Amino acid sequence: MSTPSRWTQLLQRLPGWARRWLVRPGLLLPTVIPDALWQQVLHDLPCLADLSREEKARLQGLCARFLADKEFHGAQDLAVSDAMALAVAAQACLPLLYWGPDALDWYDDFVGIVLHAGEVLAPREALDEAGVLHHWREPLIGETMAGGPVMLAWSHVRGDRQAQTQGHNLVIHEFAHKLDLRGKPAGTPANGCPPLPAGFMGLGPSAARQRWQQDWSAAYAHFCQQLALAERFGQPAPWLDPYAAQAPAEFFACTCEAYWVARERFGLEFPALAALLDAFFRRPPR
Asked: Is residue 209 scored above 90 in pLDDT?
């Protein structure tokens, strides 16, 4: 990116709400994305290949505002380059592409994005039924905290082109958790039920929520059954990442990443969910 101006540096010291008010279309776009860098990111991310010229330009504008509002930190002396930050921004903003000028409000509960070079061993503890407290370290490649930063392992953000075309995208996965957490009271975990837009699928609020919960619950139960049959009896494994069976929130995040990087295959595997996500993300038909 270009060297930040004195005005941009002052802007970045403002509280998050003030930056979000100022960084609006027609008011200020303080982060300039060089065309050569933008073209390289478009080339490196297969999930952006099918976007039209107008959609790519709209995504570039979202990325400029996203980068002006967020702060990137490299853990353990990892140097975060402009290309790395833009790659994260492009994938994080892709699900917001059709939501209009206020789309970035969905990410207004945090500022920091922490990049690690690789997996992180996070301390965990749990109390078993006998009252024994167990401690262990869990390898993490990404984590989203309600009201807090997003952590990503750069080795998995970068990934490989084949994985990206098979339904895997760490950035979209973690930012889908942010969508899920939107509007939930403090301390309420993600549950796979983000706030639905007014008039969702032509339904009233109550009917829309009921439709969402019924279809997602049925799809989640069916997926878990498919996975269990594959693991126990050798039946064909489901296409979606097995991690989706961990919880409804993980199922939602895994389906969102698969939807955005492999929409055609996702529609074949989950036609009912594809219709719901088309309506949720306001994605126009191809």
From this structure: yes
- Is there a contact between 174 and 88 (Cβ–Cβ < 8 Å)? no
**pLDDT value for 165:** 64
CATH code given to domain 1-175: 1.10.472.150
pLDDT tens-digit profile of 91-106? 999 999 999 989 999 9
Instruction: Map tokens 């994985």 to a residue.
Output: 163
* Per CATH, domain 191-286 is 3.40.390: yes
Pairing label, strands 120-127, 133-140:
antiparallel
The three-state (H, E, C) secondary structure of the chain, written as one string = CCCCCHHHHHHHCCCHHHHHHHCCCCCCCCCCCCHHHHHHHHHHCHHHCCCCHHHHHHHHHHHHHHHHHCEEEEHHHCCCCHHHHHHHHHHHHHHHCCCCCCHHHHHCCCCEEEEECCCEEEEEEEECCCCCEEEEEEEECEEECCCCCEEEEHHHHHCCHHHHCCCCCHHHHHHHHHHHHCCCCCCCCCCCCCCCCCCHHHCCHHHHHHHHHHHHHHHHHHHHHHHHHHHHHCCCCCCCCHHHHHCHHHHHHHHHHHHHHCHHHHHHHCHHHHHHHHHHHCCCCC
| Residue of 187, 99, 121, 111 lying closest to 148 (CA atoms) | 111
Six-digit token string for 106: 């969905």
Residue 267: count of CB within 10 angstroms of its CB: 15
Residues 14-42: tens digit of each pLDDT: 555 444 444 444 444 456 899 999 999 99
Query: 61 near 101, Cβ under 8 Å?
Result: no
Rounded-to-integer distance, Cα 186 and Cα 200, Å: 25
pTM of this prediction? 0.86
Query: Domain spans of the chain?
Result: 1-175, 191-286
